[in-house]
């Protein structure tokens, strides 16, 4: 038996409806009971005025001597609906039972009037208010009563109106809740649909940012960042096996060939020595390529956590240039600092200094090598959020049709046969830049030169506020 799953959209709609219902019922109850309370108070005030009038009328009489348990009813001059007025003397024994039976009012109401001087009471239809007064050394009670038509009839109408309003409000709140929940979840459903389209065949697809939705855009950025890492790993793995097989097979073939030739016939000691030197040279090449592979694996987003520190890019750049000049004095590097920011803090990034040194050195060294040691211009600049390094050379460039393969490990452009190299530097540098949440962009024209732009978020834009 399949279990029915309640979606978050449904839960949100139900929750919104419950909240709206609670608010509507709360305010409806407040309105109803406030009007009922006001009606009671207002009607008792009218009855109090009538009671005071009765007392004044009785006191104005020349003679008032009512026998005990005699009730003076007054049904004249009805100022209020179905008004009934009573005047009677307080029994000497304070026993109101006979009067209570006659006027159908509980005797505790009379006792309350005697005790407090004034009291009120209401049954299902009539409202009563009574006062005591004294005339010729005798205590009397005057009571005015009437029907509160407003409570009986008008509040009934108010009750029906409120119920109708509540039903309509619930109906419209249901529609609003449905619309609101659908609006809130539409971007999420859109992102979910887009994510379902992404597979290993089209890892280049990215989620589009949602306008005016900061929280979802953070999710989109996070997911796109994850796709970048996955795509890099896929690309590396897809091309690595073929390239590695080819690159490792070449020195191995040479080693095996030299060994086979040396063993086929007898050789002199010098010939064996020459053969061994060739084998050693090829073995060293093989060792260098394996080390380069290990380096790519370490920077290829394999989940290893690298030590990150605060690094000043200008100092790192000076160190890289000095190192490259020591390695080969022909390296002609010009550092352009005209775009340096006023605040040196903008040049700090969160990164691993050794890896950053390796990436920048590879890019500048490639520029020197493939431009036949012509001058390479290195520009350093920064914005409020990012640090930029731009390396521009005027060398052989890269053929346009091969630009889509430049990040494949061991790929070498068709016009680089006369230059030493393994095709490791650029993919290694891109992996390192991406590891630092940066971006590496290459633009090149054959026989005109290559420009490599590296962008790194500065230290303060990668840290939460207050850090």
TrEMBL record:
Q: Which UniProt keywords apply?
A: ATP-binding, Cell membrane, Kinase, Membrane, Nucleotide-binding, Phosphoprotein, Transferase, Transmembrane, Transmembrane helix, Two-component regulatory system
One term of GO molecular function = phosphorelay sensor kinase activity
Q: What is its EC number?
A: 2.7.13.3
Q: What class of enzyme is it?
A: transferase
The HAMP domain, residue ranges: 182-235
GO CC entries: plasma membrane
Q: Which reaction does it catalyse?
A: ATP + protein L-histidine = ADP + protein N-phospho-L-histidine
UniProt keyword Nucleotide-binding, yes or no: yes
Q: Which residues cross the membrane?
A: 12-35, 161-180
What's the short name of a Pfam family annotated to this entry?
HisKA
Q: Where in the cell is it found?
A: Cell membrane
InterPro entries attached here? HAMP_dom, HATPase_C_sf, HATPase_dom, His_kinase_dom, HisK_dim/P_dom, HisK_dim/P_sf, HssS/ArlS-like, Sig_transdc_His_kin-like_C
Major location category of this protein: membrane
List each copy of the Histidine kinase domain by range.
Answer: 243-460
* Stated name of the protein: histidine kinase
Q: Which organism is it from?
A: Chryseobacterium shigense
Q: Taxonomic classification, please?
A: Bacteria, Pseudomonadati, Bacteroidota, Flavobacteriia, Flavobacteriales
């Amino acid at each position: 038996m399949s279990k029915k799953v309640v979606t978050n959209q449904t839960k949100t709609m139900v929750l919104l409806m419950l909240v709206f219902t609670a608010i509507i019922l709360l305010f409806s109850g407040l309105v109803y009971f406030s009007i009922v309370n006001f009606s009671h108070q207002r009607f008792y005030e009218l009855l109090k005025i009538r009671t005071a009038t009765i007392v004044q009328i009785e006191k104005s009489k020349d003679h008032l001597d009512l026998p005990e348990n005699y009730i003076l009813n007054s049904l004249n001059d009805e100022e209020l609906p179905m008004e009934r007025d009573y005047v009677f003397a307080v029994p000497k024994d304070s026993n109101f039972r006979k009067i209570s039976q006659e006027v159908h009012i509980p005797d505790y109401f009379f006792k309350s009037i005697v005790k407090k001087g004034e009291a009120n009471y209401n049954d299902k239809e009539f409202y009563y208010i009574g006062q005591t007064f004294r005339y010729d050394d005798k205590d009397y009670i005057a009571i005015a009563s009437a029907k509160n038509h407003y409570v009986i009839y008008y509040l009934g109408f108010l009750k029906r109106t409120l119920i109708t309003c509540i039903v309509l409000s619930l109906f419209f709140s249901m529609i609003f809740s449905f619309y609101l929940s659908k609006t809130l979840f539409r971007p999420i459903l859109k992102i979910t649909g887009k994510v379902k389209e992404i597979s290993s065949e089209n890892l280049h697809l990215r989620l589009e940012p949602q306008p005016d939705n900061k929280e979802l855009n953070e999710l989109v950025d996070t997911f796109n960042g994850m796709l970048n890492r996955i795509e890099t790993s896929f690309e590396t793995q897809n091309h690595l096996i073929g390239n590695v097989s080819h690159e490792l097979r070449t020195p191995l073939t040479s080693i095996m060939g030299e060994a086979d030739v040396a063993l086929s016939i007898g050789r002199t000691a010098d010939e064996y020595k020459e053969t061994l030197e060739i084998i050693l040279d090829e073995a060293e090449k093989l060792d260098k390529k394996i080390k380069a592979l290990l380096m790519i694996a370490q920077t290829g987003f394999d989940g290893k956590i690298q030590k990150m520190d605060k690094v000043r890019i200008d100092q790192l750049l000076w160190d890289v240039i000095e190192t490259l000049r020591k390695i080969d004095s022909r390296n002609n590097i010009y550092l352009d600092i005209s775009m340096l920011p006023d605040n040196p803090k903008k040049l700090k990034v969160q990164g691993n200094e050794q890896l950053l040194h390796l990436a920048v050195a590879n890019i500048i060294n490639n520029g020197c090598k493939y431009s036949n040691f012509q001058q390479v211009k290195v520009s350093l600049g920064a914005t409020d959020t990012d640090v930029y390094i731009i390396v521009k050379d005027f060398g052989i460039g890269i053929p346009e049709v091969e630009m889509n393969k430049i990040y494949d490990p061991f790929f070498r452009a068709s016009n680089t046969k006369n230059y030493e190299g393994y095709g490791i530097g650029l993919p290694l540098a891109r992996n390192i830049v991406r590891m630092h949440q940066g971006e590496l962009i290459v633009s090149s024209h054959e026989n005109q030169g290559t420009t490599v732009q590296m962008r790194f978020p500065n230290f303060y834009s990668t840290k939460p506020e207050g850090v």
